[in-house]
Amino acid sequence: MEFPEDLKYTTEHEWVKDEAGQFKVGITDYAQDALGDVVYVSLPTADTRVEVGGTLGEVESTKSVSEIYAPFTGEVRSVNDQLNERPELMNEDPYGEGWYCIIEPDDIEGYTSLMSVEEYIEFLNSK
Amino acid sequence: MHNALKETALHDYHVKLGAKMVEFGGYEMPVSYPQGTLKEHLACRNNAVIFDVSHLGTVELSGNGAFDKIQNLLTNNLAKIGVSQTQYTHLLDDNGFVTDDIIVWWISDETFFVMPNATNTDSVVSVLGGNDITESRSILGVQGPRAKEHLAKIEPKLLDVKSNHTYKMSIAGVECQISGTGYTGEDGLEIHVENEFASDIFEMIINLETILPAGLGARDTLRLEAGLPLYGHELSSSTTPYDARLGWVVDLNKPHFRGREALLELKNNKSRRKLFGLASSTKRPLRDNLNVLSDGSLVGTTTSGNFSPVLNVGIAMAYLDDGDYNDLDVEIRGQIEKVKITKLPFVKHNRTKNTKNERQ
Fold first, then answer.
1. Contact A39 B283 (CB under 8 A)
2. What CATH number has the domain spanning A12-115?
3. What would the pLDDT profile of B254-308 be if each residue is shown by its tens digit?
4. Chain B: nearest CA to A18, how far in angstroms?
5. Are B185 and B163 in a shared domain?
6. Which residues contact B269 (CB under 8 A, 6 or more apart)?
C-alpha cells in the first residue's frame, strides 16, 4: 500500500494535501482497499460550512457504506464531480483523480495538527 | 467472543491468491480476490468464474427408505425427476414457514445428496437423518456462459453437463460428482470432490487462465440480479414459499410433506406480503432492511439490496403489502431514493444457452 509523504492523514483514513493553499481531501489506499469496489459517492455541497468531525458525505461499495468526515472546520470550496459518473476512481487513483473535495480551513492549525505519514503508518500498525 | 471459524480445504489457496477473507455461515470464506467484486461479477456474466462453495452442506441419504423420507418431508415432488437429476425444494416447519431451501442431487437409485444452507445443515439432519459429509468434501461452482466450453479443455465430457442433471465423472483421473446447478443465473456446473483432491482441481481450472476466481461478494450481487432468494433474507421462518413467489417448489398434490396443512390455509391469504423487485435510477446501492414507502406510508421492507453491475443502478428485493405499485420510495438513512417495481429477475437467466449448439 502507498502512503505519500507530502500528505497529512486523519484517524478516519483520510488524507489532506496542501496544493498552494487549496486543501484537497481524499481517502487513503488503506481505506479504499478495506471498502472494496466503490460504486457510489455522495458529495457535499460547495460553499457550505463544515465542522471538524462532521459528515461530508458517504462512500459506498458493494459490501459496505463509509462516511467521510471533515478533517477540520472550514468551508467546502469544490467537490470532485467526476466521482458521480466514475466512483471507481477512488479505488484506482485514491491520491490523484479519486480526490473527494477541497476545504478551506478556518485556521491553518486544523491542517498542520493532522498526522504525518509516519504517524499514520504507526496508527495503522497499532490497530 | 465467537467460536473459531471453520476453513474449507481451499482456504490456504484463497489466501495465497490474495483473497479478502470474511466470516460466512461459520466459515472463513473469500469475499473477493484482488481484481475486486465488480470484475468478478462481470466475468461471470460474460465469460466464466469459479467459486469455492464448500460451506454449503451436503447430507448423504441412502437405502431403500431414502426416497420416501425426502418425498414425505420436503415440499417439491421428487417423482417429477429421476436418477441423475437435481431438484430445488423447501423444508418447512409445521406452520408452513420456510426452515431451509435445499437442492437435492439424485446420485443413484437409492442415494441422494441433500444440500442445505451452511447454517441449517444440523437442523436438516435432525429431521431427515442421513450422514453429514460436508467436512470431507469440497464444492467448486464454475459459472458463466463460457464455463463449460473452458472446462472442456480439461475434460471434454463437461461440455455435455445438462442443467439440473448430475453425473459421476472423473476430471483428470479424479472421481467427482458433477451437477448442472448454480446460483448466479448463468449456465455452469458444480463439482463435488473429496477434499484431498480439491486444490488440484481448483488449480487446474485457475491455470486455464480463462476462468477467474470469484468470492462471495460477487456471488451475492449475481444471485440478486438473478432474483434468486437467500435464506435469512427472502426466505425465513416468517415467510412461506408463496410469499416468495416460489409456489412451483410446492406440490400440494402430494399427500404428505411437512407444513402441508398449514400451507393450504396460508396459500390464498391476501393479507400476506409478497416479494417484489425494486430498481432505482441512480448508482446508489440499495441495502437490506430499508423501509419502502408508497405516497409516504410504509408498505414494506427490503430483504436484499445492492448495486447492479449489469444495470448500473441500485436494485433490491422487498416484501410489500400486495398491491399494484409503480413508483415507490425507499428510505436510505433518512434520504428518499425513488424506485420502480421491476419484474424479477433483474437480469435474464442465461441458463438455456447451449454452447455446443451455438458453435455448430
1. yes
2. 2.40.50.100
3. 999 999 999 999 988 888 999 999 999 999 999 999 999 999 999 999 999 999 9
4. 31
5. yes
6. none
